[in-house]
Amino acid sequence: MSDGPRVSVIVASRHRPNWLRRCLTALRQVDYPAFEVIVVADSESQASGEVSSLKWVRFDEPNLSRARNAGIAASAGEICAFIDDDAVPEPLWLAHHVEALATTRAAASVGFVRGRNGLSFQSRVTSIDREAETHVEEDRGEQAFVPRLSAGRALKLVGTNMAVRRDILMSLGGFDPAFAWFLDDADLSMRLCHAGHITAVAPLAEVHHGFGASVRRTADRVPLDLHDIGRSSALYFRRHPGVDVSELVARIEIRERARLLRHMIDGGCEPGDVSRILRTFKEGWQVGLSMPLPSLEPIGKSPDAFVPMMAVPSGHEVLTGRLASRRGLVEHASQLVASGQRCSVFSFSLTNRRHRVRYVDPGFWLQTGGQFGRAERSDPWIKWCRFAYRKKVEVRRVANVRGIREIVNGAGHKTREKRDIGGVRDA
């Protein structure tokens, strides 16, 4: 993809400099020839980050939509891609979004999101309706596609993994600033649909979402305040009318109470917290019903020049070994990253421990678990296999999202040598 369209990656961050630093490290390893990174963040986060080859927009308001719109206004690419500060993209993230937009001629695309264990999917193919209900839709494999949806539904964009053609996004006014947080991406999904635009699914455009703590929730996703959920829910039904609001608010309250009770049972909150937090939902709901709705004006084009990211050259090193050699693998991977290369480490013990994938300092992918352990939820509890077979299966699973070409074509054409470290022979 040497001559692909220019992409502006927009990251909004507020008071989470450590998460932002991790996200930016992964963005520097994205394998795409022409992209810029626009960071919309508070002064504390700006002071902790590198300035070179990044566009910084100072913003310190608790409004994610306004922050993203500030990033859109500063963009100079043909496509705007979005990722959260507590997420990291796979190396071919942008390449797959761009390919999806090109092959389907869509206005927007949404990728897949993996959860904190790096394997289970947090989000794949879903739609949204006027009742703000999310529906799971058919998954058609790795190729980009436009799903068929029931009447009244729009393919749901996910704010931490989506791309939109900039001219269309600007013409729609970007994100609705009334949605400070929650349902901002759902609202944009509906507006794109109502305007007659197509949204595509880009299955291989993957990000890993970590759920950083914020003023709204803990790192374990326990809600601290539901004001914005109540407020945005009321606003959504006003922006997209035609539903029985009284029935819907009762349904949402039941859902949020059940969620809090689950966290209480798990020890995430105290019994007295449930009623207090639910009151914040009701307060937010009343604010959302009474506040004025701002008009959405087109966003003007930026006079700023495109600032290309100084990314890592194409290629991906793969290091594999057993538990005994993990320290050596990690040290070698760190050296490769320091020399400006991408790297994935696969380190398996002689057990059936479940697998986990992490993006770790100083910036490489680490998959751990047992040689006989589960990776996917559909896997058996014990997978009897040789070490050589297991490492091949796991490397092949991520090859198309990381650009590990010797595994993709299966014909021995290697871009980087795949090796074992530590002197341990395959079982």
TrEMBL record:
Residues 8-170 form the Glycosyltransferase 2-like domain. CDD domains: CESA_like (cd06423). Belongs to the glycosyltransferase 2 family. It comes from Silicimonas algicola. InterPro entries: Glyco_trans_2-like (IPR001173), Nucleotide-diphossugar_trans (IPR029044). PANTHER family: GALACTOFURANOSYLTRANSFERASE GLFT2, RHAMNOSYLTRANSFERASE WBBL. This is Glycosyl transferase family 2. Pfam families: Glycos_transf_2. One of its GO terms (molecular function) is glycosyltransferase activity. The keyword Glycosyltransferase applies. It comes from the Bacteria. Keywords: Glycosyltransferase, Transferase.
